[in-house]
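During data preparation, a discrete fold description was generated, as reproduced here:
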Amino acid sequence: MLNNVKTVGLLTLLTLLLVFIGGIIGGQGGALIALILAAVMNLGSYWFSDKIVLRMYKGQEVTSGKLYEVVKEIVERNNLIMPRVYMLPQSAPNAFATGRNPKHAVVAATQGVLDILTREELMGVMAHEMSHVRHRDILIGSIAATIAGAISFLANMAQWSLLFGMGGDDEEGGSMLGMIATMIFAPMAAMMVQMAVSRSREYAADRGGAELCGNPHYLANALRKLEAANRQQPMQHVNEATAHMFIVNPLSGKRLQNLFTTHPPIQERISRLEAMV
């Protein structure tokens, strides 16, 4: 319950940050537009988050094959609701879950996951994602991604406003100083809130995934491989607002983004899993 209250508070903070940035760019009118935008985006995230993210990463639904059979086994063993299963064409190994609730959930994995993991390790990864579904983390992650994306968009708008001399004056809420601060700090603030939303839930999903698959070593071994592979070959064309949704940071090979990673340290996650034995 405390974790849920904390998460709602952080999502509220993201929304307020969006409204604040709208006010800097467009004054009271900009703040009102940002508030309406936040409401529309939250509603859109509730109904369409899975479709948006899957289209972004060119996911294709599968109803047979190794990935589907592993998810089906986890579902049947633990009496869960079967989600839709998607394959992503990317060679960098990773996975995520999305959707608005367990009845409308999607679990997805890249082709790279199938290429480097054993069946047991794949089971650990997909059990982690099913744990996110079971804990209803998937909607929260999708909403956080959507609002963070909007904040980054507004920060880019502030940059273009400065370039073309449309900053306005202080009464309009568009001073140059405010614009510059928005460009620099808004994306960082959004990412820090995403970090707070994501990190505690990753630990819980690791623990829950180990319980669902029956062996914490499955996931621990998978995390070692996934982290090493993503450092050598980061996923291409990643929308940074969605990075926290993946089981390991898809930007881990990029040093600047790694300073503000939305994921807890892999070694700490592995140590906690191995301590469960």
Q: What stands out?
A: The first helix runs from residue 2 to 56. The chain has one domain: 2-274. The first strand starts at residue 60 and ends at 62. The beta strands are 60-62, 84-88, 95-99, 105-110.
